[in-house]
Amino acid sequence: MRDQTVNDLLDLKNIEEVRLSPKGNIIGSIVADNFREYRRKEIKKTVYIFDEGFNVLHKYDGYGLHSLTFSPAGYAAFAEGNEIVLMGDEGIPAKYDTGMKVETIGFMSGRILFTGQPEVKRSEDDAYFFEEEDQFTNLYMIDDHGISKITDKMQIWEFAAAGDSIYAVASDCPQESCWYRSKVYRIVPGKEPEMIYDPGKRQIGKITADGERTAFLESVMSDRGVISGDVILYDESIHNLTAGSDFSYSHVILKSGSVYALENDRTTFRIRDLGNNKLVWAGTGIVLPAYSPAFDYSSGSFAFAFSSPMEPPEIYLLKNDLTKSAVNSGLKEISAYPSEIVEWKSRDGTGIYGILRAKNPNDPLIVYVHGGPTSFSYGSFLDRTSVYLGYGFSVFAPNYRGSVGKGREYAELNVGDLGGMDFEDIISGIQHLNDTGKIKTDRIYITGGSYGGYMSALAVMKTDLFKASVSLFGISDWVSFHGTSNLYLWDRLHMDDDPWAFGKYDEYSPIRMKHDPKTPVLLMHGIRDPYVPIGQYYEFYRFLKEKGCEVRMIVFPREGHGFNEKEHIRRQYIETIKFMREH
């Protein structure tokens, strides 16, 4: 066995979606490359259709494939750009051009439902009014007469159909930030949509429906698509099925009177029927996709993608027995690394947890801070943190307050205190590792992206503990972030304050803090990032430079919020490892 390398990470196949046919005997999955090709806008993906033994019945290659589902008749459907692709038993794809960008696909009484956004045709005068001309993603139906529009000027983020009703997570404005004030609607074609649930300051997602019931997840959340919270059931009244739970819930499916949910207990995942509390399956690691774990159920069968610290990601089918695919069988020759859940008390007595991956306590330690903040770090066979062990480092990934894996209350603990006690959780976690002898080194570094980039920038201004900070696409100035990000409602909700009062926004901004920074800093940012605009690091770079701090900044062309081009991923690791070794 050999150590993991960046090349292995690039060879990893991401299992993005797993679906079951109505009879539960056919598995569909979208499997993606772990990188974008040079100058490509979309990632290369393959739709696989397997039988129960994971023999490939059909496959379809393309770019940007998404929203895989099965029709009631058993044929597969998925989106590719403006087209809906249908594949039956023969595996011959039939394509339907909708004339608009397709976002999500579903079925209602055998008819295709989809959300889409018409293409905007502009003349030579292509100036436009900011935000005023943004397009809504509406809901459409395809039947024998063609395409009919179901909603108008209603932003549909996701939906599920049952009987003659469509249940949707929707908002009254189309900007990305509007997702943070979505509500649940019941839509009957030909009638006015009926709002049935308003979560207030919380967010909702993973909606499902069966008969006259719908269910969804609710919590304070950071990113659209990164969904975790409590399971809310609606059957003409609202029921929180998991209120007060110490577990976070990442997916829910209603079927035949059962409420199947995926619970996360500090990265031990379980599929459970909440109706009778029956445990269906459990495993420690990560159910995929990692940012929003999910599973599917049909006719007594369950399907999901999973990776433990010892096993590469594969698709699993649970019927009578548990069987799996061989999508990532080529990774078997590389080493698996230890993964340990550690728990400690923070400065105020709050119990915190995290993941430690170490071969030797004397190895230099990278503190990897996840983004979100309402996300989490986990132990898997091969990911963007495990690779560092192949280059002689240990990795500590704290799931500070505000993370998922310990219930909704824990996930909401840092609302109004971004960069306060959640940062102290990280420092106390490092102290715990020292006190218990799990690490025996003073060569400690910090890195992370997005909110993790904010935390690794914050570390420069709050402590001199770290030998170096490698900070990726994070926030340095909360006020300018609010004014330039497309997520302007996110920071208002999580900061729980008015940005134009300046109080908390200044208090928690790294560039406003009174500290003489001594930590060497490497900044990395994508030039097309709409969530955390690159100006955040231009500001921080100039601030540190003029303070006399050692700082360098790498700018990645064509990249948004994260680095996806193959050579950009490689460069990120080369420069990170080099910078840490130099310090």
What is the level-2 CATH architecture name of the domain at 340-582? 3-Layer(aba) Sandwich
CATH superfamily of the domain at 340-582: Alpha/Beta hydrolase fold, catalytic domain
What is the overall number of helices? 9
Helix content: 10-25%
Highest-level CATH class of the domain at 340-582: Alpha Beta
Shape: globular
- Please tell me how large the radius of gyration is: 23 Å
What is the CATH fold-level name of the domain at 340-582?
Answer: Rossmann fold
Spatial ordering of strands, largest sheet:
30-31-33-32-34-35-36-37
Overall pLDDT metric: 97
Return residue spans where pLDDT drops below 50 for at least 5 consecutive residues: none
- Give the helix/strand class: mainly beta
- Note the gap between the termini: 30 Å
SS strand fraction = 35-45%
- Biggest sheet character: 8 strands, mixed
Written description of the protein model:
- With 583 residues, this protein is mostly beta strands.
- The protein has a domain at 340-582: 3-Layer(aba) Sandwich (Rossmann fold), CATH 3.40.50.
- Helix content is 15%, strand content 38%.
- It is built from 9 helices and 37 strands.
- An 8-stranded mixed β-sheet has the order 30-31-33-32-34-35-36-37, with helices on both faces. Strands 25, 26, 27, 28 and 29 form a 5-stranded antiparallel β-sheet that branches.
- A hairpin with a 2-residue loop joins strand 26 (295-298) and strand 27 (301-308).
- Helix 5 (478-484) packs antiparallel against helix 6.
- The two termini are 30 Å apart.
- 48% of the residues are buried.
- The model has no long low-confidence stretch (mean pLDDT 97).
